[in-house]
Amino acid sequence: MSCGxxxxxxxxxxxxxxxxxxxxxxxxxxxxxxxxxxEWDGFDSEAVHLLAVLPDGTVAGTVRLLEDGHVxxxxxxxEWRNRGVGRALLATVLDxxxxxxxxxxxxxxxxxxxxxxxxxxxxxxxxxxxxxxxxHYRMIYRR
Length: 143
What we know:
Largest sheet: 4 strands, antiparallel
Strand content: 25-35%
Oligomer: single chain
Order of helices and strands: EHHEEEHEHEE
């Protein structure tokens, strides 16, 4: 199955909490060892969330956008990585931010994902730092 068969849906925390928690628990807490209290930071209820949904209803990825233009919690289920799901999520979240009048997007990218974000136009700001024990860089995107 190609990424073209994945639908990107804008959802709220209230309507899709179970699906969002499933993906983020699998990717961040189980695979990457992020402590649960760091993952569930209290900002989800006010964020715009996107879900990548397969034709059979299975969820493949997610990302969120905070009102201040901070993009975060980008997670793609392992078997769907490197198949365009992340690109589709990122393109959609950038489009939503633009429509909301947010033209300066900030995110904290895992060092291993720098190339992914740089291809879209994000630029590194500052040096490497640890977040939940994982190396990151702050990145900015301006429209």
